[in-house]
Amino acid sequence: MISFVLFLSLLSLMTNNMIIWWSVFLMMTVVFIFLNKNVKSYSSLINYFVIQESLGLMFLLMNFGIFQFFIIMMKIGVAPLHFWIFSITNNIFSYNLMWFLTFQKLPFLLILVQIFWLSGLMLLFFGLMVCYLQMFSLKNYKNLLVLSSTESFNWIIMGVFMSLINSVYLFIYYMILMVMLINKFSKSSSNWLNWETILVFLNMPFSVTFFVKIFSLSEIFKFNTIVMLVMLMMMFLSALTFSYWLINMSVKFYDKNQM
Description:
- Helix 2 runs antiparallel to helix 3 (42-61).
- This protein is 76% helix and 0% strand.
- It is built from 14 helices and no strands.
- It is mostly helical and 259 residues long.
- It is globular and about 50 Å long.
- It starts with a helix and ends with a helix.
- It has one domain (1-258).
């Protein structure tokens, strides 16, 4: 399946034909349904199929202006257009969740690069702020993990606007490490929180998202120094939101120890 997705990614990068791009969208939907049919998470599959195929039809019909840019961003689930991803991730686990957060996005990212809209950078900044504010209201560990992945992907796409080669390298690095991390988690919702998860997603130095963000910031610094200062302040907000995990982890085994 990974080889097939890499072939579709190469195909979408070699051509700018709308029909071929739409065919790639359809094949990626078929791949996702094929991978998840044994999990029997039918609600997630139906939601994913309806959303992706509706957006695919809109992509063909609204082939003018900047509409296609917004449609591709919504298909990937880029913040602030990520409202639909929680209806998919609530019923998928382990390898399937890893696939949804990494390989499923690869062909869409390469198509987005070819139709990118420079003013869309401000939309990505707004999406980051939405992610940080939404983290304050989420209590489910799995949803926090999915939202953190969405936020990191926003950083990668912002890097695409600045430097394509650096961003492709960052995306490959991000995919490999997410494959290693997410598969480690159990299907049980009680095991989503552990010290490894906290240290990885708290933007600790030399952790997964740390390198993604620091390289993206270095590219943004060439573009606008004021924006970089705002981004640093927002990264501090991210650390505050994940402090909720620290508090919960500190008292997780309190009753057990008392007994």
